[in-house]
Amino acid sequence: MLAYYCGSVAYGTQTKESDTDIIVVLDEFNGIEHYYDLEEKCEYFIFGVKNWIEKMEYDEEVALYLKMFNDDILADVELIKLEDSFKPTYDKYRNRDFKDIMQNYLKTVIEYYSILLEYPDLRKNYYHLYRIEAQIKHYLETNVFTINLSTLVPLAQEKIEVYKENFKSNNKEFYKDFKLILNYLKGVLRNVND
To answer: In whole angstroms, what is the distance from residue 60 CA to residue 40 CA?
Structure first.
């Protein structure tokens, strides 16, 4: 029904080492599957229609990791596949106003990274916190939510590149950055709730 790029391709943060991430939505399939093609360096996140809609609606039964990237549907990258019959559903999620989902989005990000940052080893995907911080700041300044950092926030792009090259060092300065970003996002969430 639908297939589109997610991950670093969607966010404009890919490097030479990046793999390709693709979300696939299948009719007559129930569940969520993950498949990695080592040869092609391609990672697939496969959903039944019902499961994909639950993810996009921030359903409590869906894993935080899967909901945290609901904004990748906004990527300015050509879709791989979209069945005509699924276009109204796709358009509904592609065109919704970010302010309507901002609370759920922030809650998901905060909960996910609050859990991960309790562990001593940095993970590559922590770089998304730099991206999310830049996107939220841009949204609050302009009332426009966009996801491609390569054209939006060069400083955030630079931080991401430095982090991706050095995350295995477990440098405590990165932890400080991420804790500050989480506190910032918590403050934004409090304002949204008020």
So the answer is: 33
